[in-house]
Amino acid sequence: MNKKAFLTLSLILGLTCSCFAGENNNLRTMFLNNQANIMGINIRTFNAKDLNGNELIDPDEESGNFINAIERLDEIKSLGINTLHVLPITPVGKLKALGTAGSLYAMAGFDEINEQLVDKNSNLTPLQQFKKFIDEAHKRGIRIVIDLPSCGAYDLFIRQPELFIKDDKNISIVPTDWTDVRLLNVGTNAKLNQDVLNAHKKFIDMIMAAGADGIRADVATIKPYKFWEEIIKYAREKDPEFMFLAEASDSWREPPSKYAEFTPYNELLKSGFDGYYGSFFNLKDWSAKEFIEHIKFNTKLLNSYKEPKSVIMSFTTHDEVSPIILHGEEFSIMISWLEAVLPFNPYSIDGFAYGDGYIYPWANGKAEFTQTDDDTYFVHRGKLDIFNFSRKPGFNPNEKILENFKQAYKFRADNIDLISKGEFTMLKTNDENIFAFMITLKKSKTSKNLQRVVVLGNLNFKTVKGDIVIKIPRLNRKSEVEFVHGDGSLKIHQNKLMTSLTAGEIEVVKIDY
I want to staple 185 with a disulfide (CB 3.0 to 4.6 A). Which of 49, 165, 333, 388 is the partner? Predict the structure, then answer.
């Protein structure tokens, strides 16, 4: 379908063109230039109204929906976020379910809106409410990426068993420990299942007609190369700027089931995806050398493709335990500043900026009410709740973490050319727990003058590290030094930076030559 025909169809459906939809969408370009500051949100909790303070949304309270979500968009923009990754909006399964609302990733239909995300008091249809949320985001310069679940709910298997893989006993396949979903029969590279392919195209049609700017493909590795090649081509014929992000990591080595396909991250990038998840969530376990090597690995990988590619910094996602639980508030602050200064796309989950630990007092207890066949408030400890009607993220904000998040993202915005276009260089340290690097950019092609950002961090979250000396090429008395972040202990002597770092501390310095 050409662009003119698509716009005509949109008008017939009563959907006006959104601010960034079609030719005005620039998300793919932003992402490939590392300028997409992304936050993942769950509409069901995003602006939930917990009036009695029990951290649950009781039947007489208002859960998060597309209409009340609009109230938080100005707040999101003020944080420095310009792109929202909206966790799945499709109907959720209620049978063999996890949690009292059902997992967002137990998809029960491809081309419908989850009724749980709809404002019952609005005169707008579910699709119109979805579109209104996107339109309001676009008015504020916020792009919208929609999550595409990888598997189908048991409810969908009951209705359409032909869409699913079955074993030799004709039983549906439960991938790994994802007990509430079943594995879709996508086919193979040699022969794709057209029914499943067409169902995914219906999903594409629905979200694009509403004005969405891209897709995040959940566990993209379990679908074959040819499947993604065709899906991406289908969407890009409608909108060349439609962005595709693969949930795939360089640390993933095998599929979650012997019945599943496995397409590794590098092949997914070849198939047309614009980016994938770097394994930055492993920072909690890395030495300084491992961290720096991972940055270099991603830089080399992304430069190896003919077409531009990028990556998100997945330090914090809905699948990861909150940093504040892992290593305290200093770890959260470190992550915010790393996202500000590294030459990839920042990514955070709703609540991270406020220091949320996602600890719910009722977690895994007996439920007082449920919409599924699960009578337990099932949650993953320390992770954003995607299974129940719970409070909005950001409960009891940590002001120190919040202020650092805002400062870090403002620094990134003010120095985006230096960060996104500069040359990354590792700096030597004398401690396996201390990382140091700098990013350098010439002020102009003909100028010898340089801009640099220098970053040092202590990955030991229990011990203070003193007497740290870092040599900085060309650093001298005439250099203009701006101490961006740190406790003030950093000093300059000749061409060296000298400092000490408290447990988990990060320091950021900007230098003009």
Answer: 165
pLDDT for 15 = 46
Contact by Cβ (8 Å): 452, 421: no
**What was the pLDDT predicted at 446?**
63
What's 449's DSSP letter?
A: -
In this prediction, residue 173 carries a pLDDT of 96
Q: How far apart are CA 199 and CA 319, in angstroms?
A: 26
DSSP letter at 427? -
How far, in Å, are 114, 117, 141, 394, 410 from residue 407 at the CA level?
A: 36, 32, 20, 18, 5
Cα–Cα distances in Å, from 505 out to 69, 279, 329, 412? 35, 21, 10, 19
Q: What is the pLDDT, as a whole number, of residue 447?
A: 62
d(Cα 480, Cα 134) in Å, to the nearest integer?
43
Radius of gyration for the chain, computed over Cα atoms and rounded to the nearest angstrom = 23
Sign of the torsion formed by the C-alpha atoms of 205, 209, 210 and 211: positive
pLDDT in tens, 9-41: 443 344 444 445 455 899 999 999 999 999 999
Q: Contact 89/130 with Cβ under 8 angstroms? A: yes
Rounded distance between C-alpha atoms, residue 203 and residue 218, angstroms: 14
Tell me the sheet residues that pair with 49. Answer: 62
Q: How many residues does the chain have?
A: 513
Longest CA–CA span in the chain (Å) reads: 76
- Contact present, 287 and 433 (Cβ < 8 Å): yes
Q: Which amino acid is at 121?
A: N
What phi and psi, each to the nearest 5 degrees, are found at residue 88? Answer: -45, 140
Q: Which residue type occupies 122?
A: S
Q: What share of the chain is helix, strand, coil (3-state, %, to 5)?
A: 30, 20, 45
Give pLDDT, residue 485: 96
Is-contact 348 39, C-beta < 8 A?
yes
Residue 338 Cα distances to 263, 345, 490, 497, angstroms:
29, 11, 18, 19
Alpha-carbon dihedral of residues 359, 106, 83, 72, nearest 10 degrees? -50
- Secondary structure (DSSP) of 342-354: SSSEEEEETTGGG
- Unique residue bearing structure tokens 């909108």: 239
Residue 497's contacts (CB-CB under 8 Å, 6 or more residues apart) are 454, 456, 469, 470, 472, 475, 490, 491, 509
Beta strands per DSSP E along 42-128: 83-86
Q: Report d(CA 355, CA 401) in Å as an integer.
A: 6
Closest C-alpha to 42, from 116, 152, 125? 116
Which segments in the chain show pLDDT lower than 50?
1-19, 21
pLDDT at res. 13: 43
Nearest to 417 by CA among 143, 33, 28: 33
DSSP 8-state assignment for residue 376: B
